């Protein structure tokens, strides 16, 4: 599903449908305003952000000890702990647990890590029937698509799309687009799946080193329905989910849902420490490039992320290009600073899919310097030769012109003349990409230097 | 070297110098002027029916009314006139519990700032109960409502039991065009009794 087309090419396809682009833009902005309202009700909001950021920075600086402590405590709780260096090892571990349980039907609640590892594809190839149980994820799964947003997986779809999909797969009435009706149909369909499945996979929002437990947050109740109905619970986590103590949950749970959707907290914040009697619980701790990112001083802060999606909702580029344009499991600004670490060549375009306006950093509940890191990735990518030859030649040309005042003056004068005499050269979408969605300004009659020389007293 | 040791070694090599952990600043913990009022307002906003009652009479009455019409399970201890029949569900499968209409459960702590009520294995003879029932009724004593999450985590011990959960409102989703729908996979409705 992930082609080699770049963000700008995919974004061009997305914005071809203008009313839909506007709708996407408005809808996400609405979520951002809900976040603002929720944040403003908390007197100590900025203090919470600073504290959350500090706790995560501390945790990263002691991650080795916390991972060890977490493992010890989880083992003492009767939980089986597995370690995976990369996506392939993660997938193989999950498959071996399922196989050992002798099961071929599983349910899964939302986990961006398993998206990152392409677990579904892998398990389906092994003959396992995988059912995503988050409503948005179930919708995109039926459509053979990927989530376009980490919190709102089907935000790129309209009611009619969902209605068509459910008509095809669940036999709902054709063209009935009532969200309550459609949600109820999914509820009945998925209840059967929960009851029939003996393995449930979940993600992890927070892993507590001092107690060896994990916390999973949902609104729909699908993680809990899956886990408590199943005999085997597999929780998959990136190793950066660690927090030192249970009391730190107070800080993070106050921030997470408010930043994500403007809710005071998710409907369910489930704390798993021990499997129930007769059941099994497994935790798979995954590296997949995270230890490498930890070693990059400029980029390690990206590992503080708690996956709230606030940076998506505020981003002018995300809102107008849609999640699929990012061709990465995690889209948006945060995805654009995580992806180059995983595959620099494939994701070299993503740090450029930003205006560097800084809004992402301003809403981030753990104060990741997202827009600075986007800029820093651009430096790394150009240096490593992933910037593309066009960008390189242009930059070198610009550097030459700007460092030679006479040539700069001549070029400016020529530019103004050409714009006046041959406007078609600039008002041309194939020659001038800048013109694609913009009008060109009228060329000024003289340069600032000429104006200044005439007017200085 | 095992994968585990390799990962831990890489983390150890790559992590920055230790940044000492500071205490959570006291200024984050702002006590509500009236926690019950806040708790009620937040829950009403989350499509929850809130009943503030003096004594247990109304709850007892409600349980007996429900019992006449519906399949219900009650996990409320120490109240004369209410039978705790939670233990009957200990070994029940999801298939058996799927037809449960109501679960009524008393929680040990509620939080004003977000309307959440804590339950753990002590209140959950079967962990499925508050999720698989069609309608959930949570009961909390007025004295057990704290202002915020920091206060709540000081009162509970997260690993006292194998499982614990904060529940705030009925299950819901807005995954179809951001339209809020109450009743996703969990209960279709939530009623909360605040007992004085």
Please provide a brief summary of the model.
Chain A is an alpha/beta fold.
Cα separation of the termini of chain B: 60 Å
**Computed Rg of chain B:** 20 Å
User: Which strands sit side by side, in order, in the main sheet of chain A?
Assistant: 1-10-7-4-2-3
CATH-assigned homologous superfamily of the largest domain in chain A? NagB/RpiA/CoA transferase-like
Let me know the number of strands of chain B.
11
Contiguous uncertain segments of 5+ residues of chain A: none
CATH hierarchy: architecture of chain B? 3-Layer(aba) Sandwich
Order of strands in the sheet with most strands of chain B: 1-11-6-3-2
In round numbers, the mean pLDDT of chain B is: 97
Globular, elongated, flat, extended or rod-shaped: what is the shape of chain A?
globular
Oligomer: heterodimer
Give the tally of β-strands of chain A: 10
Cα distance, first to last residue of chain A? 65 Å
Supply the number of helical segments of chain B: 6
- Give the CA-based shape of chain B: globular
User: How much strand of chain B?
Assistant: 15-25%
Average pLDDT reading of chain A: 94
Structural class of chain A: alpha/beta
Structural class of chain B: alpha/beta
List keywords for this structure.
heterodimer, A: alpha/beta, Fumarate Reductase Iron-sulfur Protein, Chain B, domain 2, Rossmann fold, 10 strands, 10% strand, B: 196 residues, alpha/beta, 6 helices, 11 strands
Model description:
The complex is a heterodimer of chains A (457) and B (196). With 457 residues, chain A is an alpha/beta fold. Chain A has 3 domains: 1-18 and 302-387, Orthogonal Bundle (Fumarate Reductase Iron-sulfur Protein, Chain B, domain 2), CATH 1.10.1060; 42-138 and 194-288, 3-Layer(aba) Sandwich (Rossmann fold), CATH 3.40.50; 396-455, no CATH class. Helix content of chain A is 52%, strand content 10%. In chain A, the strands form 2 sheets. A 6-stranded parallel sheet of chain A has the order 1-10-7-4-2-3, with helices on both faces. In chain A, strands 8-5-6-9 form a 4-stranded mixed sheet, sandwiched between helices. In chain A, strand 5 (206-208) and strand 6 (213-218) form a beta hairpin. Chain A is globular and about 90 Å long. In chain A, 50% of the residues are buried. Chain B has 196 residues and is α/β, with parallel strands linked by helices. Chain B has one domain (32-195): NagB/RpiA/CoA transferase-like (Rossmann fold, 3-Layer(aba) Sandwich). Chain B has helices at residues 3-14, 35-45, 57-69, 94-97, 129-132, 149-155; strands at residues 49-53, 72-75, 102-106, 109-111, 117-120, 135-141, 145-146, 163-167, 172-173, 181-182, 189-195. In chain B, strands 1-11-6-3-2 form a 5-stranded parallel sheet, with helices on both faces. The longest helix of chain B is centred in the first third of the chain and has 13 residues, at 57-69. The mean pLDDT of chain B is 97. Strand 9 of chain A pairs antiparallel with strand 8 (163-167) of chain B.
């Amino acid at each position: 599903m992930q082609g080699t087309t770049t963000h700008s090419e995919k974004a061009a396809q997305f914005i071809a449908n203008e009313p839909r682009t506007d709708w996407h833009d408005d809808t996400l902005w609405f979520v951002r305003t809900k976040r603002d309202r929720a944040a403003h009700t908390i007197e100590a909001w900025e203090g919470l952000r600073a504290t959350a950021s500090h706790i995560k920075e501390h945790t990263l600086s002691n991650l080795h000890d916390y991972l060890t402590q977490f493992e010890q405590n989880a083992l003492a709780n009767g939980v089986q702990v597995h370690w995976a260096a990369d996506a392939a090892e993660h997938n193989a571990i999950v498959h071996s647990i399922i196989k050992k349980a002798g099961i071929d039907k599983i349910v899964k609640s939302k986990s961006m890590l398993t998206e990152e590892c392409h677990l579904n594809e892998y398990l389906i190839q092994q003959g396992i029937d995988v059912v995503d149980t988050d409503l948005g994820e179930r919708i995109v799964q039926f459509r053979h698509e990927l989530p376009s947003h980490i919190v709102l997986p089907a935000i790129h779809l309209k009611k009619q799309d969902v209605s068509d999909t459910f008509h095809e797969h669940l036999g709902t009435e054709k063209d009935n687009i009532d969200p309550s009706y459609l949600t109820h149909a999914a509820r009945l369909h998925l209840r059967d799946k929960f009851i029939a499945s003996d393995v449930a996979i979940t993600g992890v929002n927070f892993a507590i080193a001092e107690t060896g437990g994990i916390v999973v947050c949902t609104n729909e109740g699908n993680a809990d329905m899956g886990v408590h109905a199943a005999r085997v619970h597999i929780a998959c986590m990136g190793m950066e989910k660690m927090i030192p103590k249970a009391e730190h949950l107070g800080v993070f749970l106050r921030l997470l849902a408010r930043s994500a959707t403007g809710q005071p907290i998710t409907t369910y914040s489930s704390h798993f420490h021990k499997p129930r009697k007769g059941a099994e619980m497994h935790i798979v701790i995954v590296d997949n490039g995270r230890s490498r990112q930890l070693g990059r001083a400029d980029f390690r802060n990206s590992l503080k992320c708690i996956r709230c999606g606030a940076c998506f909702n505020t981003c002018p580029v995300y809102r107008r290009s849609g999640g699929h344009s990012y061709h990465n499991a995690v889209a948006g600004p945060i995805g654009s600073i995580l992806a180059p670490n995983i595959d620099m060549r494939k994701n070299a375009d993503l740090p450029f899919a930003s205006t560097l306006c800084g809004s992402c950093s301003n809403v981030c509940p753990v104060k990741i310097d997202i827009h600075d890191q986007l800029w820093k990735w651009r430096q790394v990518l150009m240096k490593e030769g992933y910037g593309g030859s066009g960008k390189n030649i242009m930059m070198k040309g610009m550097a030459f012109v700007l460092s030679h005042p006479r040539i700069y003056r001549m070029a400016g004068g020529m530019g103004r003349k050409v714009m006046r005499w041959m406007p078609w050269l600039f008002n041309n979408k194939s020659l001038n990409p800048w013109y694609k969605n913009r009008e060109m300004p009228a060329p000024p009659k003289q340069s600032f230097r000429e104006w200044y020389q005439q007017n200085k007293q | 070297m095992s994968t585990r040791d390799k990962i831990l070694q890489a983390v150890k090599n790559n992590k920055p110098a230790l940044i000492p952990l500071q205490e959570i600043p006291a200024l984050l913990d702002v006590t509500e002027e009236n926690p019950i009022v806040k708790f009620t307002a937040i829950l009403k906003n989350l499509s929850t029916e809130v009943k503030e009652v003096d004594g247990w009479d109304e709850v007892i009455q409600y349980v007996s009314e429900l019992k006449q019409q519906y399949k219900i399970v009650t996990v409320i201890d120490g109240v004369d006139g209410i039978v705790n029949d939670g233990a009957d569900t200990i070994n029940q499968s999801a298939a058996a519990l799927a037809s449960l209409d109501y679960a009524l459960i008393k929680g040990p702590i509620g939080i004003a700032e977000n309307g959440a009520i804590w339950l753990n294995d002590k209140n959950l003879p079967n962990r499925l109960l508050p999720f698989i029932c069609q309608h959930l009724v949570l009961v909390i004593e007025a004295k057990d409502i704290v202002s915020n999450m920091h206060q709540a985590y000081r009162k509970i011990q997260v690993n006292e039991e194998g499982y614990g959960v904060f529940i705030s409102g009925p299950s819901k989703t807005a995954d179809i065009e951001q339209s809020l729908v109450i009743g996703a996979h969990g209960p279709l409705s939530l009623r909360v009794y605040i007992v004085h």
